[in-house]
Amino acid sequence: MNKADSKYFHAIQILEDNCTGCTACVRVCPTEAIRVRDRKASIDPYRCVDCGNCVSVCEFHAIIPASDPLDIIKNYKYRLAIISSSFFGQFSEDISYAIAKQAVLQLGFDEVAEEASVTNFMVKMIREYIRENRDKRPILSSNCPAVVRLIQVKFPSLLPNLFHQEAPMSILTRFLRDKICREKNLSDEDLGIFLIVPCVAHVTAVHQPEGAYKHLQDGAFSTGMIYGKVREIIKDVQNHPVPIDTYPHGLTWALSGVQAELVDTDDIRALSVNGIDNVMDILSRVEDHYLDQYDYIVLRSCTNGCVGGCLNVENPFVAMSRIKKMIKEGNSVDGDISEMEKLYRDGEFKVSPLAPRPIMELDKDIKKAIQKMKKINEFLTMLPGLNCSACGSPTCYALAEDIVLGKATLDDCVVLKRKPSEDDD
After folding, report:
1. Burial 277-299 (b: 16+ CB within 10 A, else e)
2. Of all residues in the chain, what percent are helix, strand and coil, respectively (each to 5)?
3. How many CB atoms lie within 10 A of CB 306?
4. pLDDT recorded at residue 182
5. Residue 1: exposed, middle, or buried by beta-carbon count in 10 A (0-12, 13-18, 19+)?
6. Is 292 within a domain?
7. Which residues are within 8 A (CB) of 380 and not within 5 positions of it... i.e. 6 or more apart?
8. Is the dihedral of CA 346, 352, 353, 354 positive or negative?
């Protein structure tokens, strides 16, 4: 394992035997983290932000997401699952919200909580933070871990603009860990808290929280895996329903656009953006101060928000429609948030500004780095400028960079290797 591998955990794996070297993954990576050499893909752990684009486009199942096996809950005396708001949009309409939640409980958990239960609290906290930090504009949401890592890698100047409070499921974890240990007379080691999440970025965030983000959970399960296990027992659960609290109005957190609408008031102007390419475009504009008129920008790397995560099983548009129906027809139970409010006032959910993530330096010696930059430009003039990715690098500039760093050669460019007769044709 190299230094980069030991420093950064990623919830994405490459199965080399399945990889054909097609370069589809290379073309969709927003941080140019993927290279194909000798017809096999590899991921630079420094650059990868776990957005899941590569997982979604790989037709050969060579790039697969990783999450924890359900059996790890057996290592704990008391087991709590916290469910992402997008989870309930995965089920057909003959399976009710309450039944889906009850079925998760039947998988071996002692208690099940929902991200949706803290939505109102989060909106209140966000509004307060915006009003108290008027010197920062716009403030950027930190709910999507892929976006947070993207900012660290490509837009480090915007790190101070991040909303410096924990994400909803981490806030709920922090609150429930204290509460359950106290009420059940458990030690911290006896309590296992696990997230059911829609994307690989959330799995990575559980196993390697960035910077000051606290390591709060004990594992993360993919929505798809839990969905499959729930489907196996759903008939029995439907035949034996029990009363269970649900929070349909809080499910809005799974949908792009709704968080911004909830935060938006007469004195707060909010914007919502989804899809990694759109997010990068907006971050570029924020960096250039084109969007200072906004107070708060919600950024989600997946299409339509968390319903578009690559660990989900349902089409994001269908899932979004189902969740909207649940919100419209449901009655939420408002829990007592006084204890959570106290933790917030005590600064328990606050996180310090994150540091930029170093991705690459041409050379530690500045003179040598300048020389290498000149060589990159020299190679760039030799390359065709098509950015076709056929060489295994995402762009001609990236190939020139790889050549100078000894990771590729000019012969990797298939355009330059064409025979003259082909050119004449």
Report:
1. eebbebbeebbeeebeebbbbbb
2. 50, 10, 40
3. 32
4. 92
5. exposed
6. no
7. 396, 397, 400
8. negative
- Local structure of 206: helix, strand or coil: helix
Q: Enumerate residue ranges in the chain where pLDDT < 50.
A: 1-6, 211-213, 423
Residue at 123 is within a domain = yes
What is residue 89's three-state secondary structure? Answer: helix
Residues 21 and 127 in one domain: no
In this prediction, residue 229 carries a pLDDT of 94
Last residue of a domain, one of 297, 319, 345: 345
SS3 state at 239:
helix
Residues 81 and 61 in one domain: no
**CA-to-CA distance for 243 and 407, rounded, in angstroms?**
60
Angstrom distance (rounded) from CA 219 to CA 109: 13
* 109 occurs within a structural domain: yes
Is residue 80 within 8 Å of 214, Cβ to Cβ?
A: no
pTM for the full model? 0.88
Please report where in the chains the tokens 């609150």 appear, as a residue: 175
CATH number at residue 3: 3.30.70.20
130 is written with which tokens? Answer: 């915006």
* Domain span including residue 197: 70-136+157-256+309-345
> For position 396, which CATH number holds?
1.10.15.40
Domain boundary among 66, 88, 108: 66
| Interatomic CA distance for residues 194 and 72, integer angstroms | 10
Q: What is the Cα–Cα distance from 425 to 420, expressed in whole angstroms?
A: 9
Contact between 114 and 101 (Cβ < 8 Å): yes
Are residues 169 and 93 part of one domain? yes
* 119 and 213 both lie in a single domain: yes
Which element (helix H / strand E) includes 37?
strand 34-37
Contact 212, 219 (CB under 8 A): no
**pLDDT number for residue 4:** 39
DSSP label at 268? B
Structure tokens at 374: 């000149």
Phi, psi of 125 (to 5 degrees): -65, -40
Residue 293 within any structural domain of the chain: no
